[in-house]
Amino acid sequence: MNNPGSTKTTGGDGTPGVPKLILMTADPIGGVWNYVLELSRGLAPHGVHIALATMGRPLSPGQRREVADEANVTLYESGYRLEWMENPWGDVDQCGDWLLSLEAELKPDLVHLNGYVHASLPWRSPCLVVAHSCVLSWWEAVRGEQAPQRLDVYRSRVARGLAAADLVAAPSSAMLDCIRRLYLPLPDAQVVYNARGRTRFRPGRKEDFILSVGRVWDEAKNIGALVRNAYDLPWPVYVAGEINQPGGGAANVDGVNRLGFLAPESLAPWYAAAAIYVLPARYEPFGLTVLEAALSGCALVLGDIPSLRELWDGAALFVDPDSATDLQKQLRALCADRSRQASLREKALERSRSFSAARMTEGYLALYSRLRAGRAVEVGE
């Protein structure tokens, strides 16, 4: 258990247990970035301010504008390497010192970590860890084998962080099951589904093309499987996302219409117009792009993995992520079947309403209140 600190009983709007200030970590590389901004927007009406500590790489100009648009978010930026990167531990430890200095300066009501290792720091505030993904579960899903021995340091430091956290949450039961199996039982961990606001992503006039969004080089997203099949599909394929790999080189995008990396406001019209959205993922703990596509009324074609089944079973067409033949067969049939497209679009849109921003915000407010109530008991003792 972390070192106890002072605890208030009401938040900025006077609601019992609602924090006034949260120190939250994030990186600008993946879906966690959009998750953090969505949650910040949901918390704003409750009087909650976010001190957002970023690491991993510098923010893009667009990301800086996104932060500036959120009146309840104050940015604290760093370039420390993340725990899942190659040889990160010197940076991770320096980042821990920086985060503790921020806590000492800001005196937040609680700490919300979107990573694992820093939970083992001697926080004075109650600490929540959200398990968005992890290297060991990624390795099993993408490589089809247990993670190698060289990742033992990662394994032990993640387990230490999880054990030190006051509470652990995950965006799907499938992800939580992975964490429990690979690290610790965590009987008290909670699931809070991610969300996207409905005002940004809406259905439009559908056109005959296929869309996919994500890092094209990422074996977990497996967008490369769609790219390799694009020449043999009856409809054009559009792909939005980075093609340049972090270690150098670029993914092959021959045969598709490359849109490059697009900010959410630029992506929204593409979602609105796309008849079919494809993500044949091997590993995807939640999948915010899938939700964005569903909100936009796309027919969903997804990799048949536990997390996506959990979220979209009955509202999507599932394919074997390791079978190019299955992907091509299912897409060719769906392109030719207008009735099935319409049915899948309707089901996806209906399911998307389950993942509302209001519900996600309520879920986190409940976790925050529980954390602060638990710490208040400790202080009282």
UniProtKB/TrEMBL annotation:
Give the matching InterPro entries.
Glyco_trans_4-like_N
Q: Where is the Glycosyltransferase subfamily 4-like N-terminal domain?
A: 29-194
What CDD domains does this protein's entry cite? Answer: GT4_PimA-like
Record keywords, A-Z: Transferase
PANTHER family to which the protein is assigned, alphabetical: GLYCOSYLTRANSFERASE WBBK-RELATED
- Protein name, please? Glycosyltransferase family 4 protein
Source species of the chain: Geomonas subterranea
